[in-house]
Request: fold
Amino acid sequence: MPAIDQTYEHILRVLSEDGRISNLALAERVGLSPSACLRRVQELERAGVIQGYRAVLNPAAMGIGFVAYMGVGLNEHSKAAQEGFERGVVAAPEVTECHNITGTIEYLMRVECRDLASYKVFHTDVLGQLPHVQSITTYVVMGSPKDTRA
Reply:
């Protein structure tokens, strides 16, 4: 893996803002020749620093009108309970992020639904049916002044 110097950091910053930028434009922005820039990007890809490129989607344009973060606590702290919960969450298309965290609950999730009614169905019929779910706390997103997820 290459040592991440300032040039690598600059490349990564530009690519995180625009993953579709041409190599020529990227090279100009970071002050490298096109061949040196391409070589560095390929090194970052081979090393797994760059894991892929994604499209940034507009949830509202896709019919998503309800976004929430949910804290989920389990009633059993075993590997089997976690694996069962995670299998259920992976199968739920409404869950766009799921993180196993430390603290008073086990999971923090981002959930995106069409509207409040579809969220209620997800909450009751999907999440509420998973084994070992003890507590669910929902934080409804009112706005996102900064969101750099891709």
